[in-house]
Amino acid sequence: MNGTSFRSDIRYWLRQGNTINHLLFWNIVVFLVMGILYVIGRISPSTGFISVFLYDQLSLHATLPALIIRPWGLLTYMFTHVDIFHVLFNMLNLYWFGNLFRSFLGNHRVLPLYLLGGLSGGLVYLLVYNLAFPGFDSTMIGASASVMALLIACATKIPNYEVGLLFIGAIRIKWVALAIIVLDLLSITKGNTGGIVAHMGGALVGFVYIKLLDNGTDICQPLIWLFNRRLRVEGGKRTKRSFRPKKSPLRVVKPQQEENKQLRLDQLLDKINDKGIESLSPEEKAWLKKMSQE
């Protein structure tokens, strides 16, 4: 019974039309699989090669020969973690700043920027390692570059937006982003050089993306178009899936005016969910503000 309820909760959570939920889900699933295989390998050493093999396949290798053999590593590395604090830190930041990005710029831009940030971080990592340490095959895993892209995009788009931090209180997001970048740069000589330069690659994409978007160029548009083609209903018709909360079984009869208000509210909330609050016109924002005060 509990297992059935848990699966139902997961399905309901994933059907909310929030890409951040899906990214969290797959990152956590990969982490759990890697962890379980590692524990099995410790208990039964004869099976220990399985976790080593899987890590080797999912991570991004620095040398070009290794990359040619495992090109998918440029994509899979950004969904792979093996350290509990690594995945915890990345997932918390993905949840906080990913949902903030989604609320202002729309759900349809989340996955494209996550991927572009990860790809940029991976390419910078490959460039630095092949120039500084030619022939040395290091590996990299983690969603940090992708998360940095979302964080810096938020800090660039809404720099004065305040977030609450434990023990610190309210602080503008631009200072949070600046602090993370400075701490990364200060620790570059203390190890994890590849990871830190990958963070900078993701951060650069987040910054450039918003600057270009403000000028009317959306570099995520090709990926948005590609992913939208996959949103189809049975029979080949295209559709857009959006989350709608479960309705109460109690039906309340409303006057026609109230029905019209509710219909418009639902339409605007769907628009925010899909394209972000910035997609609303000044009239629509004013109407929502009026509704919130009633």
TrEMBL record:
Top-level taxon of the source organism: Bacteria
Membrane topology reported for the UniProt record: Multi-pass membrane protein
Family: Belongs to the peptidase S54 family.
Coarse class of the protein's main subcellular location: membrane
Protein name (database record): Rhomboid family intramembrane serine protease
A single GO molecular function term of this UniProt record: serine-type endopeptidase activity
GO biological process: proteolysis
Biased composition (Basic residues): 238-249
Compartment(s) where it occurs, according to its Swiss-Prot or TrEMBL record: Membrane
Residue stretches making up the Peptidase S54 rhomboid domain: 71-212
Keywords of the record: Hydrolase, Membrane, Protease, Transmembrane, Transmembrane helix
Residue stretches making up the DUF6576 domain: 259-293
Transmembrane spans: 20-40, 84-101, 113-132, 138-156, 163-183, 195-213
One Gene Ontology CC term in the entry: membrane
Keyword Transmembrane helix (UniProt): yes
Keyword Transmembrane helix: yes
Chain spans, region Disordered: 238-261
